[in-house]
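User: Here's a structure from my thesis project, written as structure tokens. My advisor, Dr. K., wants to see whether a designed sequence matches the one we expressed. Can you design one independently, without my sequence as a hint?
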């Protein structure tokens, strides 16, 4: 863990978050930017700067969790698909230097393009959204 990294602090519980899921290796939470309905971040608990620096075990853990949460959103939360995005490096738009995967849950004809901004989302209450999206073992 990196003591200066905001995502490390979130994973350790030092900064509050809207936790969707957690296991021993990964942490999943809603992006507080509130820019796209259900915008979710999947991070390894271990500090790794980017996808190109991640070891095989970290990659496997993160993508197993990405698959788990994507399936949960589609099977249990009323979504019909997901966009999965990774920005690697500042030139690619990575703003937090801790490897993370974005999940954007999608519905048919939702008209939102994954460009980080979706219309009419600012009024969304994350407290309400987390009730819909939180993962609990079935």
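Assistant: Designed independently from the structure alone:
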């Amino acid at each position: 863990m990196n003591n200066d990294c905001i995502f490390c602090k979130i994973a350790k519980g030092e900064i509050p978050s809207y936790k969707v899921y957690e296991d021993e290796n990964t942490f999943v939470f809603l992006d507080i930017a509130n820019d796209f309905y259900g915008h979710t971040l999947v991070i390894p608990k271990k500090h790794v700067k980017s996808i190109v620096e991640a070891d095989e075990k970290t990659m496997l853990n993160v993508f197993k969790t990405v698959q788990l949460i994507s399936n949960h959103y589609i099977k249990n939360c009323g979504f019909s698909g997901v966009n999965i995005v990774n920005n690697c490096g500042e030139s690619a738009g990575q703003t937090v230097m801790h490897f993370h995967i974005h999940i954007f849950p999608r519905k048919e004809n939702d008209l939102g393009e994954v460009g980080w901004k979706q219309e009419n989302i600012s009024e969304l209450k994350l407290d309400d959204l987390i009730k819909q999206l939180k993962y609990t073992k079935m």
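When you compare it with your expressed construct, this may help: The first strand starts at residue 19 and ends at 22.
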